[in-house]
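=== RUN LOG ===
request id: a7f3
mode: sequence -> structure
chains: 1
length: 148
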Amino acid sequence: MADSKLVVNTVNSLLADMHLLYVKTRNYHWHVKGPHFYALHALFEQQYTSLEQAIDLLAERVVALGGYVPATLGEILQLASLKESHTDNQLPAQAMIEQLLRDHQSVVATLRSAVAQLDQHGDVATSGMLTDRIVEHEKAIWVLRSSL
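=== RESULT ===
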């Protein structure tokens, strides 16, 4: 099994990005406008709900390994590689989709790197959980790309 500190640090970085993506997706759910409002409003809700469930699952893994889960906005922003924007709720719908698409692509790249790292250290349980997340983020990418 991998060094639990390595696993905790790896997953916590991912959790920070997923939290930021969750907040951004929820923001877009509340503020999307335009001719495709209802479809995008529902899509964003489905995506932030999926993220919320995944965050909880991965956070519980961190705690099970004896780690601490960053839970304050300050901690999350400090660890996240994704960026927030204070004007996100003013974007047109297409720009919202494009931003979410880029963020999901970034999370997939980070997940792939984390899976490779954890596989090298023998943590197949956490690696499997992250592989499942890759599938979910790739589905989100497909749906968002198809919405453009």
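=== NOTES ===
The two ends are 43 Å apart (CA to CA).
The chain has five helices and no strands.
=== END ===
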